[in-house]
Amino acid sequence: MIRCVLSSLLPLVIFASLAAAEDLPDPKEVVDRVIAAAGGEAFSKLGILQLQVDQEETRNDGSSFTTRYTLFVDSSNLSNGRIEYPGNLVIGSTARGGWSTTGGVFDDRPQTPSMARKRLNQTVFPLLLPFSLKMNGVWARDVREMTWEDREVWVLTLPFSKGFFVNPILETYWFVVVAKDDYSILAAEFIPPVQYRKASPEGVRYRILTTEDLSGARVPTQVLAIGIDVTNVESGHHRLTKIKPSVNAWDPSLFLSPAQLEALEEDD
Question: Whole-model pTM?
């Protein structure tokens, strides 16, 4: 008798589950609305975006250090990027691949193009959310509905193409928490893959604290990264990234390797 009742209810349960799934928005639609809410169309027209980046990091043991670098990105195509580090280290990338120079000397090691591109991806993605949700190699797999810190939200699941990040610990599913009311990003986080948790047990939760309006685009100016354990509990490990954004004149040579620049000069 019990088996008969359960059998009769099973189609209803399946139907209810399918109906609930059909009520959820398409993940791509959520991404589009998040980017639109932040001024995505205006962002794509900015041109060369320069970010002066200062990071203050404090580890769980209380030790701290600071980092400074300058990041240039093509707002219409975030595959085009350039980082200038202290010590005259420059890393650049286009859709064709990456490159690096130190003290003006080109790094001709065979792994450099791939490593440089991954380094740019790893730097740009968390600092330029939500616009970086449209980077090549990023996509929204699904969306679910929940309450997060007393707000109704959509939670996007993001997988990445293999080799997107230079650090394999980041190559796992990320979850982006989106407020339903205004489509702002409340958090983006990940937990390391199981195979890396023994060596690196912490994941990271990113929060965009402040933004600045640039011609209608809301660009992050403070991003807080907080360590989280496998149960999503925050630790004392944190990194505050302060960003001073500005718009520069269009100069595609920023992103080209020395060899590409030389070839262009020869053509001229």
Answer: 0.88
